[in-house]
Amino acid sequence: MRKVRFLILFICLFAWGFPSFGQTTKKIEYESDRTIKNEEKYPGALILSKVQDQVHFTHEGIEVWCDQAIHYAQENFFKAYGNVRMEQGDTISMTSKYAEYNGTTQFAFASGNVNMRNPQTSLQTDTLFFDRQKQQAYYRSGGTVRDSASVLKSRIGRYYLNDEKYSFASEVVITNPEYVLTSSQLDFYSETGHAYMYGPSTITSEESVIYAERGFYDTRGDTGYFVKNSRIDYKNRILEGDSLYFNRNTNFASATNNIKVTDTINKSVIRGHYAEVFREKDSVFITKRAVAIALQEKDSVYIHSDTLMVTGKIDNRIIRGFYDVRLYKSNMSGKSDSIHVRESTGLTQMLGNPVIWSGENQLTGDTIHLINKPNSEELDSLKVFDNAFMIQKDSIGGYNQIKGKEMYGLFADNELYEVNLIKNTETLYYMRNDPGELIGINKTLSSSIQILLEDQEVQEIYYLKQIDGTLYPEQDLPPNARELKGFNWRGDEKLNSVDDLFAGEPPYDLVKIKGIPLPEEDEEFFEERTDGEAPLLNEKSRLRPEDLQERAQDTLPRAQHDSLRQVIEKPRDTTRTGSDSIPAEFRELQDTINSNTVKDTLSKKQDSPSRREELLTKQQ
């Protein structure tokens, strides 16, 4: 008895330790109104056919219906013809003209008007491979995916059932009533409608064109996030930056880091590190080292401030700058607390402690206006309102000074050549003879003053009305009397180059952009089978092993996502895997069914004799 118990225990341990020996592949089950054997044409197979109900197969959670089928029970394999429908639970349903299924490897192939559906989307293609063990479907002869918002087309695609994700490669096109999206490679999640773009991608609509080489787009919410060489082209503006956000519903876009906004109509550029664009209001807000550049043929004008705003339609653009405004052009620069530029009139208003340097001349006042010539890029005139003050540093020492209530200046070739001051004017001027020797220091009061300049240096001064002046020898005028009331020399603030626009500002640390990572590299759909594994294809399959080999024109390596190159289109391979070969084979099967006597050849599964008798009665 002890030996018997030991033997039983040994058997149990052996079976538990090596479970694979006890595992067998589950056989495909079927139901059919009509069953025919024809060993001559289909050795080892049963020909199944619809009379009233379609042929029905079940296997490991999958069900297949069709009008006719060839079932190889020994190989656990079948071919299905006519109105084929395949369902896997409530997650996926597929229809086609033809399908075949290998129960050993759970590998299926369908062709001829293939339509695969899940709760959110449908896929239409000519041929489809379906690996149930991986829960992945794959096509390479062109496919169309439809969801509630868009239609997606690509030449190559893979569907991951567990992730509800489509991975499209080569010639991807998404068509929406509002836009068309094209990409070289794209992942689409059917549950959310989210699309991730890899490689050159473009979203074109009536209002804008978006380009990016990596990005995200919510096809149902109409919002997007783009990185790597991203730009948005509007009808009159181009927005570029390291990172772009776009909302089609509100006509809003924002950009972060290394931003460039180009006004293609008015030939101006704004740069910075954060920007917002409101298309309907035709406005731009930009900050973080913001600088506006008016592109002029001879001499561009730069305006920098903490914040810049550009508003108004094309013919009435207004530029506003706030906080620490700095202006620079080759022969003039300036500063103020804020600035207001109306491009249609050419008027630039400098507000809050403004100063302008023109050559060696410094002009200050409560408010300064610069006016461009109509339909020209050249400066026409300037106006200084209240507490107008002009200072020029003397060549040897001291400062020439002119002040009044208001000041008016005239430009020629963008250089100041005449200045007029009115109301309560005063001057303090170092008088020199031709050799340049100092004669004395002239202090004069008058009603108004006219100053003529050449090469932006004072050449002549004319005092008009109510003149009261004194020429002091240098030694008779002490240093503390050599400055008029309100004197404020700011020469150390003068901008001498474009780089001075940012002088004194701390370095700006760019915001860290949250990128869109490349997808993980997936294995090839048709993996090579290792020793001991059954081949994906049954030997009775319409496909050949070479049909499952990856081809250069069918896939784009994941490792090359950042350098995706356009794949040359090659003729579609419909041999054996296309729908063109279905009709002849289908007709041959139908001829075989029609040529056999149902009563003599009818057979059925052994576990359902009642169904067999029922069918015999119907035929009689």
TrEMBL record:
Tree of life domain: Bacteria
Ranges annotated as biased composition (Basic and acidic residues): 539-575, 601-620
Species whose genome carries this gene: Salinimicrobium catena
GO cellular component entries: cell outer membrane; transporter complex
First and last residue of the signal peptide: 1-22
Stored Gene3D superfamilies: Lipopolysaccharide (LPS) transport protein A like domain (2.60.450.10)
Region (Disordered): 523-620
Bias (Polar residues): 591-600
Keywords: Cell outer membrane, Membrane, Signal
Protein name stated in the entry: OstA-like protein
Cited Pfam families: LptD_N, OstA_2
